[in-house]
Amino acid sequence: QVQLVESGGGLVQAGGSLRLSCAASGRTLSHYSMAWFRQAPGKEREFVAAISWNGIDTYYTDSVKGRFTISRDVAKNTVYLQMTLLKPEDTGVYYCAADENYCADYECYATLDFYDYWGQGTQVTVSS
Questions:
Q1: Potential cystine with 59: which of 41, 46, 50, 98 (Cβ 3.0-4.6 Å)?
Q2: How far apart are CA 77 and CA 87, in angstroms?
């Protein structure tokens, strides 16, 4: 069983930066596919970014490309989401997700049902 705990959310002005962390316990994440999703009020949860089990491949939704960076630290059993040039439309609850299965492409990584493990979420609010 994997437990995921997100942190690093907060209130920031447009154009600012935040770094989210997703710390895992229970098992090492070294062979897990990892992702970040977000959910704005009244909207469905949506894919933001993902990273392959070996850290080689990364995937981003179009709206965050060039602004967000996903990374993983195997030694710390943690996945990060560095967010820069934040916009009000980035506001939402950000969730970390993990799955021990291999993903072959973007469509797989972007599918909520692929992931077995989820964190409780961390709130990100970007003011204009």
A1: 50
A2: 29
Please choose, from the candidates 104, 124, 125, 126, the residue with its C-alpha nearest in 3D space to the C-alpha of residue 36. Answer: 124
Q: Output the six-digit token pair for 73.
A: 């630290």
Q: Interior CA angle at 18 toward 109 and 85, to 5°?
A: 85
The per-residue pLDDT for 1 is 85
SS3 71: strand
Average pLDDT on 40-52 reads 97
- What are the DSSP calls for 5-54, one per residue? EEE--EEEETT--EEEEEEEESS--TT-EEEEEEE-TTS--EEEEEE-TT
**pLDDT tens, 75-117?**
999 999 999 999 999 999 999 999 999 898 999 999 999 999 9
**How many Å from the N-terminal Cα to the C-terminal Cα in the chain?**
40
Q: Which residues lie below 8 Å from residue 60, measured CB to CB, with a gap of 6+?
A: 48, 49, 68, 70
